[in-house]
Amino acid sequence: MRYQSTNEHNEKLSITIYNDHFGLVKEERQIHSNEPCEEIQYLDVAKKIETDSIIISGVHVLELNYDFDLVSKAKLLEKYLDETIYIYDKKTKEKLNLRLLSVNDGIIGERIDTKEIIINPEGELVLPSLPAGLIAKPALLWKVPKAPLNQKINVSYLTKGISWEANYVLNLMEKDFALTGWVAINNQSGTPYENAELKLIAGEVNRINEVTSLYENNRNYHDEMVVYSSEPSFEEKSFADQHMYTLNRPVTIKDEQEKQINFLNITGGNYRRIYEVNRYSTKPEIKIEIDNNRENNLEIPLPKGIVKVYQADSDDLLEFIGEDEIPHTAKKQPLILTLGKAFDIVCESMETNRYEEENLEFVEYHYYLNNQKEETVTIRIDHSIIDRGWEMVETSHKYEKTTSTNVLFNVEVKPDEVVVVSFKYVIDRTIYIKNRD
């Protein structure tokens, strides 16, 4: 006897979705049959299941098959080649019995009564029954020791075709900001998930490209914290070497559906607007920097995603001012967005002098920063020095040496002001001479 188990038998369903277009489905079902069964047909699994990932507990499985020969017009007709079908005429209410000869280029049949050949007959094509072997939806078929069934079983498997990504909306006020985060879930796995517990994994999980698919033990939780929100919907925890977000309520994700769920609402944080230039710039890049710490109402691991940025105009209406994509951002790691290039700030830079004294080479450089805006701005100069063995000897402004080849200047420029940033550094050429020797 064959026993059929459907998602109506689910007592618990959960799905964990990863960034890389796959998910882990976990089901707990109650199965019951007074009659001895030797086969269990496990229905309502994802069409894009990875068959080598299936884990079953609660029943001893001798053999596992995945049946995916689904019903279609072409397959139905192929199954009925050389069999009797009939054509139903709705107007005359008559039935024409045919022996099906070919379905390769239209329908060709032989009349049972006259033996005449009919090509593409008009009317409703009626087949007596569903041929053996064809099923309406994919199923796992298990061979089990023949016995009555009355137990709970747990089944888990990986499936492709389901993914999630984060997206953010950042509203910049005069001094502070409001940040809203959304989770977008896209289900193309071939099955719905009704009233499921939902978890999302943010991070990079190694996967082998070629997996056995008919379609396209972890560390303890630690470092627990809740995402700040008026009504937090996700709880965030570190998990293994990734981050896990658990929805605090069941959710239904239909097949062929994209669902958006709010997971983050931050208000009252501060930000910095920086205009950044380098030696090749004529217009500075607009940068928004946000400290990801508790003092700024944050200190939250943020999943990678696109941040769309808005700001109110003089009519107090929000306008779109740019967007950027952030990587997975750990807490205390700042959020840095590039929104475009500034219109009213002009930059020019040049090497003004280079001369040698014995084995020392001196280089003088100037940046001309012209602010035509109506407010004071901060302009950051990110200057690269490719020579080895250099040392700064003179500067007009304070600087920070960030790497062996870069220095940063942060300069305030008032409205309608031109500021000249000049500096001179020396290169010790004896390093090159020693290397040649």
TrEMBL record:
It comes from the Bacteria. This is DUF4139 domain-containing protein. It comes from Evansella tamaricis.
